[in-house]
Amino acid sequence: MRITQRSLTANSITGINNNLAAMTKYQNQLSTGKVLTKPSDSPTDTNKSMQTRSGLAALNQQSRNITDATARLDQADTYLETMQGLAQRVQVLTTQGLNAGANDATSNAALATEISALRESMLGVANSTVASTGQPLFGGVTSGKVAYNADGTYAGTDGYPITRRIGDTESIRVDITGTEAFGDAATGDDLFSLVQGIADKLNTSPVDTDALSADLAELQTAQDRLSTAQSTIGARAARVEDAKALTTDRDLTLTAQLSAIEDVDIARATLELSAQQVGYQAALAVASKVLQPTLLDFLT
Hints:
By secondary structure, the protein is mainly alpha-helical. Helices cover 69% and strands 2% of the residues. The chain has a domain at 57-259: CATH 1.20.1330.10.
């Protein structure tokens, strides 16, 4: 088989170009810090990278949902605790009002005035808004600006729980409506009507102590309802906290997997680059000896 000068030249140039391409590949890896810069680098690893990035995107959304859920639940717990304190103060004042022997009409009127003021404070708490959206915290999905009107009637929406997805298959409710926490005015057992009724009875002379005693018992029921609402919110908050820890762990795992797929091994790439540089220089040296001199070489 006859090997022509043209064949030698073509093979030498092909070898040099291959060495140069390999050297450029490792230079790019070291400059970008990535093994994968385009799908053709490794279709299999590109597919794995896309799947991993998709998982990370889902986790990022879940993390945002968890942050929002935590904020809502923390707010609800804080305001329910405030409402519980106001209800306890009403309970104390109502108990004082039952002491008919020690109170006169003026004293009862003063008690009624304070209880009415406490009711207004309760309505203010019940109309608290979500810090991030400005929506009524206890109003459900209402499009209105308040959960309760000035007369104490409920202006929110029931039956449509607000949920957040905090896992691949887990969603959690992040709200509690006013009727669930403070009672339903439609059935006559809401906290605001009850407190107003106590104030009205104390403004009536003589005070109907039997009716006031019944209201005191209903007030305890209302406080128990508030406690149940707090327990419910606390249980949901604990679930969200668990989901947060799990999401953090999964995020670390997927990030490590993505790094293993995409990130370059600096030491290995540096070694490979050195080897390719040596090979490239050797290819140039061999080519310069194998290829015949040109006419230009003789002229110079």
